[in-house]
């Protein structure tokens, strides 16, 4: 039996890992909330961002956290361009086509990364990758503490953008009633592209927070997005507060399952929760009925 201190340390470190899961889920739930589709390219785009962080560190020696600053606008521009000039035109206004286009985009990006980097796993080693922060008798991972703070800050900033800016109000209007928003002069294709870009910008932050403690290969994004999708379902499709709280909860569950069941079974609790939520409360914690 583990001591209470070890269990509490595992729970707190899981809470901080869950904050990064929440960032990935934020982009996924934001795109769903406005476009009402699941972006199958989300994992591949996360992988691209992680390789960008690794490349900046390996080639230029730039700290992963500093890479976030230029990477956020770059990923926003990439997301905006993909939605405005690829996903939107290729879908011809059909949601089913959008799913197929994003799936095809995911396959293409993954294969491009395989061609460029092969299937090798890459890591980076910073001075603080294994540093810990002492909280009384508890030892917490320094990169994960940074991740928790950044996740809460990004969630708060995104909430402010959506609720206190004209663009945010336009995004919420399009999410509620696309036709009505179009009739009052809102450029719906532009808002779709902005939303897609914001989702990709969240991935840029998540990539910078992940790389000091995780590895990257061309297929790693899919594993994170599976967890993120569970977070979105738990928190409620389209709910930003739900994505944050769901991510924190899922991180704790994964960490405690890994402690008691072993690392190889660490994610079993996540998918049991996923099934339970679908059976008991399909709308999630903060989701609204259609």
Automatic annotation (TrEMBL):
Q: Which CDD domains match?
A: TM_PBP1_LivH_like
Q: Which BP terms in the Gene Ontology apply to this protein?
A: amino acid transport
| InterPro entries, per database record | ABC_transp_permease, BCAA_transport_permease
Coarsely, its chief localization is: membrane
Keyword field: Amino-acid transport, Cell membrane, Membrane, Plasmid, Transmembrane, Transmembrane helix, Transport
Transmembrane stretches, by residue range?
12-34, 40-58, 65-86, 98-117, 138-162, 191-211, 223-253, 259-280
Tell where it localizes. Answer: Cell membrane
GO CC annotation terms, alphabetical? plasma membrane
Is the keyword Signal in the record? no
Topology versus the membrane, per the UniProt entry? Answer: Multi-pass membrane protein
Select a single GO molecular function from the record's annotations and give it: transmembrane transporter activity
Q: Does the keyword Membrane apply?
A: yes
Q: Which family does it belong to?
A: Belongs to the binding-protein-dependent transport system permease family. LivHM subfamily.
Task: Spell out the protein name for this chain.
Answer: Branched-chain amino acid ABC transporter, permease component
Q: Which organism is this entry from?
A: Azospirillum lipoferum (strain 4B)
């Amino acid at each position: 039996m583990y001591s209470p201190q070890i269990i509490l340390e595992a729970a707190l470190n899981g809470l901080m890992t869950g904050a990064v899961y929440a960032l990935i889920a934020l982009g996924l739930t934001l795109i769903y909330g406005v476009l009402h589709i699941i972006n199958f390219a989300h994992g591949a785009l996360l992988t691209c961002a992680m390789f960008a962080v690794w490349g900046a560190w390996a080639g230029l020696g730039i700290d992963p956290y500093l890479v976030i600053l230029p990477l956020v606008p770059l990923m926003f521009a990439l997301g905006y361009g993909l939605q405005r000039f690829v996903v939107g035109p290729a879908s011809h206004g059909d949601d089913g086509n959008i799913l197929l286009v994003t799936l095809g985009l995911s396959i293409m990006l993954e294969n491009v990364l395989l061609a460029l980097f092969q299937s090798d796993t890459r890591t980076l080693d910073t001075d603080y990758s294994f540093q810990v922060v002492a909280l009384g008798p508890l030892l917490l991972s320094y990169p994960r503490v940074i991740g928790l703070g950044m996740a809460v800050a990004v969630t708060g900033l995104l909430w402010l953008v959506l609720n206190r800016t004209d663009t945010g109000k336009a995004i919420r209007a399009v999410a509620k009633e696309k036709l009505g928003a179009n009739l009052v002069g809102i450029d719906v294709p532009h808002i779709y592209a902005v939303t897609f870009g914001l989702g990709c910008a969240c991935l840029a932050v998540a990539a910078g927070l992940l790389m000091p403690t995780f590895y990257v290969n061309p297929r790693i994004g899919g594993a994170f997005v599976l967890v993120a999708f569970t977070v979105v379902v738990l928190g409620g499709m389209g709910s930003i507060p739900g994505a944050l709280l769901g991510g924190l909860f899922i991180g704790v569950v994964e960490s405690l399952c890994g402690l008691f069941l072993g690392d190889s079974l660490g994610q079993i609790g996540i998918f049991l929760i996923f099934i339970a939520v679908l059976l008991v409360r399909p709308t999630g914690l903060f989701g609204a009925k259609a």
